[in-house]
Amino acid sequence: MNQRISLPSDQDATGRTFGPEELEALRECLNTGTLTSTKGNFVRQLEVEFAKMLGAKFAYACSSGTAAVHCAIAAINPEPGDEIITTSITDMGALTPILYQGAIPVFADVDPNTYNVTARTIERCISDRTKAIIVTHLFGNPCEMHAIMELARSRNIPVIEDCAQAFLSTYGDQYVGTIGSVGCFSLQQGKHITTGEGGIVVTNDEAIARRMYLYINKAWGYGDAKPDHYFIALNYRMSELQGAVALAQLQKLEGVVASRTRLANALTTELSGVPGISTPALTPNTVHTYWKYCLRVDESVIPGGTVALGAALKDSGILCAPRYIQKPAFACQVIKDQCTFGNSRWPFTLARPEAVDYSRGLFEGTWNALEHVLVLPWNEKYTDEHIQYLADNIRRAVSSLTGQTVAAAR
After folding, report:
1. The domain 13-252: what is its CATH number?
2. Stretches in the chain below the pLDDT threshold 70
3. Which of 122, 148, 345, 374 is the most exposed place for a label (fewest CB within 10 A)?
4. Distance CA 126, CA 83 (A)
5. Which of 39, 52, 191, 292 is catalytic?
């Protein structure tokens, strides 16, 4: 048995890129004495530099990835009972903003190999109430944006891109987040770069930009001739302290992505030919930036499937996640039992029956994906030694479970 080593974790300093740059930025920020972004310069500079990096016209920082999605939906401005198509495999933070804006989340099935929604699965969900489509580039793997945008444009439906896990992922020659009407990013603890909590929205649409900026700021028209609170909105501002850390982190993003991608490609090579294991299925003409690294496990080859393989890897200190999430988003209590405002069930009371039909047969790809995915921990502080450790232990676990000797890749 090989010697056990500890993998870096994105939940502490071992797997994060914090250093003197962040400390210096925080010192500079504190020395100004101004910690609100309405008066300071760090958050504004972050917005300018992030927009420039992606080639977007507008970027606005906010308090979380959930806030970013909420700002995007608020900018689209649905009427109560309007429908927003989204994915069945996502974080609840990307769904509750739909409900808070009075709209109905309509779940599209996913491709069981990429874990992403497709134009085909989205099209089945479109109705005359569809107000927007949210696509999630899960794990850093871009969705099939050409086909999705063709469909959306043909129906005049705006597309919101959830890029929380997909910093600097590209589809063709464009960064994700700049293809649809709005891109939403998260700076939460485990993302490619982090401020603990934080978010950024980007757009090339001036009207959407204006509305998102207002929504972050309680709809107060800072800089207007006669400012007022123009509509119902929240305080979703990022603080200057977060902005300072984010600026320092932003300078490291290209290196973070390069490291994650290089090491993911190395692990894919190492795992080539391992029976019962499929390495990440990449969307054609894209760059996957690996928020996490996912294996697809064939339980007809590996007895016990993801659960058994995951348990074997955890014995080696590899804290992987069988299924990623334990159940599809629509099976969570808040959606399934319509637990919203008091006992009202609103806005579900406005929903078409078809929009809230979560029958298993409608989501074969979703259930298939969750039953066969094993999510490996991943971050930019991995080394070649860590990749070898992962590969050796995966091969060893597969050998133990199948009774077959699995040779190392040549």
Report:
1. 3.40.640.10
2. 1-2, 409-410
3. 345
4. 9
5. 191
